[in-house]
Design a protein that fits this description.
The protein has 99 residues and is mostly helical. It contains four helices and no strands. Helix 1 packs antiparallel against helix 2, helix 1 packs antiparallel against helix 4 and helix 2 packs antiparallel against helix 3.
């Protein structure tokens, strides 16, 4: 008997990265320069994975929001980055199971 694996939802890996960065950008957090660069690198890796798997066009709005967040981190605007990532997170939410 073979067992079927469910396919991952588009953007699963990017969603995990977004969640990780959001934890570090929690309300009131003020990351320093090296921390901002590390968070930016995390977003780049999530975007790279999304592009490599061909998911970019399937989650286009979320990808644009993550790119915006990356730019805001580079401009030392963690609050703006958090806002953009919250928008991306909404678009990357897993679908609700239908009954």
């Amino acid at each position: 008997m073979t067992r079927r694996r469910s396919l991952p939802q588009p953007g699963d890996r990017l969603r995990k990265v977004v969640d990780s960065v959001l934890v570090e950008l929690s309300d009131g957090a003020a990351p320093d320069g090296p921390a901002l660069h590390r968070l930016e690198d995390m977003l780049v890796s999530g975007l790279a994975w999304t592009a490599a798997t061909g998911e970019t066009c399937r989650i286009e709005h979320a990808v644009h929001a993550v790119r915006d967040a990356r730019e805001r981190l580079g401009a030392d605007d963690p609050a703006g980055a958090r806002s953009a990532l919250l928008s991306a997170r909404e678009d990357l939410a897993p679908p609700v199971a239908q009954r």
